[in-house]
Amino acid sequence: MPVSGVDMAWWPLLLIGFTVGVVGGFFGIGGAWLVTPSLNIFGFPMIYAVGTDMTHLVGKSIVATFRHWKFGHVSVIIALVMLIGTFSGIETGAQILYWLTQKGIAGSVVRYLYMILLASIGIFMLSEYLRVRKLEKEAGKQVKDIVGTAWSRWIQDTLNIWPTFYCPIARMRVSLWAILFVGVVTGFVAGILGVGGGILRVPALIYLMGVPTKIAVGTDLFEVMFSGAYGAFTYSLKGGVELVAAVIMLLGASVGAQFGTVCTKYVYGITIRLVFTIATFFACASVILKEISSRYAAVYKKAFEAFLADQGLTAAQISAIYAKKDTVYHYMVEVANKPEWWTAYTRDYLWNQAGGILMLTAATGICAYILIQLYLGVAREVREKRLREQEAARLKAQS
Amino acid sequence: MIGEYFKWAAGLAQNSPFTYAVVNVGTMVALGVAIGLIADGIFRLLRVDLGSYKKEFEDESAVIKK
What we know:
The complex is a heterodimer of chains A (399) and B (66). Chain A is an all-alpha fold and 399 residues long. Chain A has one domain. Chain A has helices at residues 10-27, 32-41, 46-71, 76-103, 106-139, 150-158, 176-193, 198-208, 213-237, 243-266, 269-310, 315-322, 325-335, 339-398; strands at 145-147, 164-167, 172-175. In chain A, strands 2-3 form a two-stranded antiparallel sheet. In chain A, helix 4 packs antiparallel against helix 5, helix 4 (76-103) crosses helix 9 (213-237) and helix 7 (176-193) packs antiparallel against helix 8. Chain A is globular, with a radius of gyration of 23 Å. With 66 residues, chain B is mainly α. Chain B has one domain. Chain B contains two helices and one strand. In chain B, helix 1 (2-15) runs antiparallel to helix 2 (17-45). Chains A and B meet through helix 3, strand 1, helix 6, helix 9 and helix 10 of A and helix 1, helix 2 and strand 1 of B. Strand 1 of chain A pairs parallel with strand 1 of chain B. Chain A: Its main location: membrane. Chain A: It is found in: Cell membrane; Membrane. Chain A: Keywords: Cell membrane, Membrane, Transmembrane, Transmembrane helix. Chain A: This is Probable membrane transporter protein.
């Protein structure tokens, strides 16, 4: 890799790209919480993982949005207005994050907030799914999606202020202020958490805006194009992007995104919500593992970096040391003579690896489920088409 | 030629981060649009209809409206 100087095979990048392409195309999220730990597992340095993921996301979201747009899943007007709210919310949230960082409490506060939020979203969506399935059994009728909630109705009634407009894609009349409000709220939370926010925006579009599930997926992907471009730009400015890796990942993701987006045609909104719920729980588990590893990082990180700075190393050189375990060992044990730092570093590293393996397993499992659903959907469509053709031929022969 | 492009871009990361950022985003946008159009062309060639379709929320009887 020309920027980071790391030796890495191309196939893990292609496979990770494909997997998150399938998952992202199906849910409408960027999926940084899946990509960054997975990249790390294959030896890609964490300092380049986030930026490289953000960069490949730009191309992937264009490919996936294009397909969703063809299906009629993208409400451009909602996405554009929400984008304004999202960016202003992110900026405000980022200021609060900066304040928390200065107080030295950002890491844990943010992670606990994120855990609570993800667990709440997951539990709420799962309980709603189970309630619908129970209702189906009682009524003896299949429910394919749920449109609107008491919250979305309250927001639309309370913020029913001019200018309002009819959105034909989502089949709803909505005030510009209602969309801005939801955008600011989700952007604010994403800003505090320091995440892209797709995993928050999709449920927000569904539950706070009352948008049908598939429209929420397509509309969020449209937003991801812009937020991804912003993220890619800022990370590139800091030199945290490996363009070769981003291009390889994009090639895999473009193929995966076709499978993921096409699958949304064959499953119902309620199924997308169930898989999204499972993904939310995995994301929550990933944050818990991150919190555990950060406890070990607290033992050595500050002291080790201060020691390296005393040795005359720059911030960039310190970052480069973390990219190679042997070098970390050399400085911690042989130069600084602090084996306890090395023990804490090893545990931190192992917990991070555990998070990576969990996320990789989750992504692979969800990806396999989506591909099976796609296969079943296509097979059903082909079967129905053949039956229609046979019926037409039979009628023709009779006449 | 592709290898040279990546080497040139990596050089920008060291010498001109702003240009590097523009090149990165530009490369992704160009590739995304190109791949999107190529994929659409392939679906057309294979005669796979992936246009608009009747969604489940358009079927009032199968949707719970709150």
